[in-house]
Design a protein that fits this description.
This protein is an alpha+beta fold. It has eight helices and 13 strands. The protein has a seven-stranded mixed sheet. The longest helix has 30 residues.
């Protein structure tokens, strides 16, 4: 099998641009995932975020996780568990309004580092959306405008830790799913692995790499590209050794953004429009109960509410 796509963003500046854009195009069409190096976020900031995250887990989250495991009797499981994940998580919201200052039990230096990290990730996400536009033949800024809605995009971070698991054959770190949103940027542990994606019917490891950012595409980009790019099923395998850090940031459409296949892409396709149009918030309500099920029935379900949506052009901002 081909090796997992690793893309050096520095090579966009110079003679390697064409080759780099081709690698991004191939990754979007055939993998739904790729890993970025030289992405512009300083190694010093990444190291700070990693250190503070691991300190926060030990100080504030580890005991809560152990209590959850005990209350559910997970360590005594004798058969496969399919309704809970072996993970410790909390969420931060950045856009349209940040809640970082309100989340309890965060040290001030952690809040400050995560605010700075979110700003850098926001810039990277918007750069990636424009690179995708270029590869798709869409006007620069199209995807950002498609995500905008009335209040701008929704952007948030899921901070996760996957502690050592005594029975990884019976419980997943995170059950298989596709991501509902737009573009996802993951800063993951560079020593403890476990993230896998489904490609051609086989589970493939996403390699841990120092100072890299893993990118994957969500359901909304599959819809907007009319299936040219696909969201891909992925999961986390729990490990018997090591605590895996995962900081996943989701650059998603605004809650009232209307999502539908880009007209410019349909003009060149004989198959016509395959995917529905819908309000992003309505999709998220459906996704909340069906996250760990196949995405295709979600798309079909959204077609039933299509007639109520007023579809206008993507306006220039």
């Amino acid at each position: 099998m081909e090796s997992f796509p690793v893309i050096d963003l520095e090579k966009l500046n110079g003679e390697g641009r064409g080759t780099t854009m081709a690698k991004i195009k191939d990754a979007c069409e055939n993998w739904g995932f790729f890993e970025l190096v030289n992405h512009g976020i300083s190694h010093q900031l990444l190291d700070t975020v990693e250190r503070l995250n691991k300190e926060h887990y030990k100080k504030r989250m580890e005991q809560k996780f152990k209590q959850m495991v005990a209350s559910k009797g997970l360590e005594a499981a004798q058969s496969e568990i399919d309704d809970v994940d072996w993970e410790s998580t909390f969420h931060l919201r950045h856009l349209p309004v940040s809640n970082i200052s309100e989340v309890p039990d965060l040290e001030e230096d952690y809040r400050k580092a995560m605010k700075q990290f979110a700003l850098e990730l926001e810039k990277l996400a918007e750069l990636l959306l424009d690179l995708l536009c270029e590869n798709l033949g869409l006007e620069k800024g199209y995807l950002k405008r498609a995500f905008h809605g009335s209040k701008g995009p929704t952007f948030g971070t899921k901070v996760s830790n996957y502690p050592p698991c005594p029975k990884p054959d019976l419980i997943k770190g995170l059950r298989a799913h596709t991501d509902a949103g737009g573009v996802i940027l993951l800063f993951q542990d560079d020593k403890v692995g476990g993230l896998q994606l489904l490609k051609d019917g086989q589970w493939v490891d996403v390699p841990p790499m120092h100072h890299s950012i893993v990118v994957n595409l969500g359901d909304q980009l599959e819809v907007i590209t009319n299936g040219k790019y696909k969201s891909v099923e992925h999961r986390v395998i729990a490990q018997t050794d090591g605590n895996r850090m995962s900081i996943a940031s989701f650059y998603n459409p605004g809650s009232d953004a209307v999502i539908y296949p880009a007209t410019e892409l349909l003009e060149n396709e004989e198959k016509g429009r395959v995917y529905p149009k819908f309000v992003f918030e309505e999709y998220m309500k459906l996704y909340a109960g069906l996250k760990f099920q196949a995405k295709e029935p979600r798309f079909e379900a959204m077609k039933t509410i299509e007639p109520s949506i007023n579809l206008g052009p993507i306006t220039t901002m």
